[in-house]
Amino acid sequence: MGSQVSKQLERRKAIKAEKKILSDLKSSSEEEYPGSEYRPKDRTNWMSELNPEKVRINQIVWPGTHDSATNKIGIPLVTRPFAQCQSLSIYQQLLCGTRVLDIRVQEDRRICHGILLTYSVDVVIANVKKFLSETQSEIVILEIRTEFGHEDPPDFDNYLEEQLGEFLIHQDDSVFGKTIAELLPKRIICVWKPRKSPQPKPGSPFWSAGFLKDDWINTDLPSTKFDGNLKHLSLQPPVSSRKFFYRVENTATPVADNPILCVKPVTGRIHGYARLFIAQCFAEGFADRLQVFSTDFINDDFVDACVGLTHARVEGKT
């Protein structure tokens, strides 16, 4: 018992120290970077606002959400705080500017986060289609994966093609160098990551797992995550020569020996440092590698931070 209490005290000290490291860095550093002052007039149509004929896919800094479909997961006030990573619906996220969705499914096509379940993936599809019907030039990366510990939904690729076929941008390396206008009226890059079923093949309506990569750092320590994200990003090729999407997640997550197990207070330790992260990428010389930037509980400022850098790239200011 005594050793457990001592361990928890050490954990609290480590968390406090790491929070101070990021706070001090923010106090001593600039959060300005090319495009940081830019604010889209309409976040729902920010890609259209930047001019689809000018914006190439590999220039975009894609604002994404982590565990996107968890707004209603679990039981409110009981299990939900341990698994909820977003408070907005998929449709609301898209309206506020989110363009990469992280969707976890299990064998009966329900959304899940670990062992907790929520609504059917049908709800996600309906939300995405509603958004697409109300916009003209917004491209969405829809990542759907079978959650760890679960089985693939049967015949899921056929289901997705039936639901989304008219919108799907087929797997093709040349897409990265194309403008949004060249891809329209197709609107969705759907990355399907089954656990056991065959991966999508070249030319397929779906993109295989290797086209959306990340280096997940499972930690509740904010400075550890921040520095780890910088290190992994620095090892990537520039977006101009990359034939895959690379994701950085501005998140901190509860771990087993954490004295706090609810998602929101833990991820809140890093949540406000997105602009600082982008500025540090410039300071260290590898901002040209930033591409997909994801977060828990996405908000307007996070979207603006990504859109601003995209605008700067399109205008040749980076």
From TrEMBL:
Annotated PROSITE patterns: PIPLC_X_DOMAIN (PS50007)
Domain Phosphatidylinositol-specific phospholipase C X as annotated: residue spans: 51-193
MF (Gene Ontology): phosphoric diester hydrolase activity
UniProt-listed SMART domains: PLCXc
UniProt-recorded name of the protein: Phosphatidylinositol-specific phospholipase C X domain-containing protein
PANTHER family (UniProt xref): PTHR13593, SI:DKEY-266F7.9
Residue stretches spanning the membrane: none
Domain of life: Eukaryota
InterPro entries: PI-PLC_domain, PLC-like_Pdiesterase_TIM-brl, PLipase_C_PInositol-sp_X_dom
Biological-process GO terms, alphabetical: lipid metabolic process
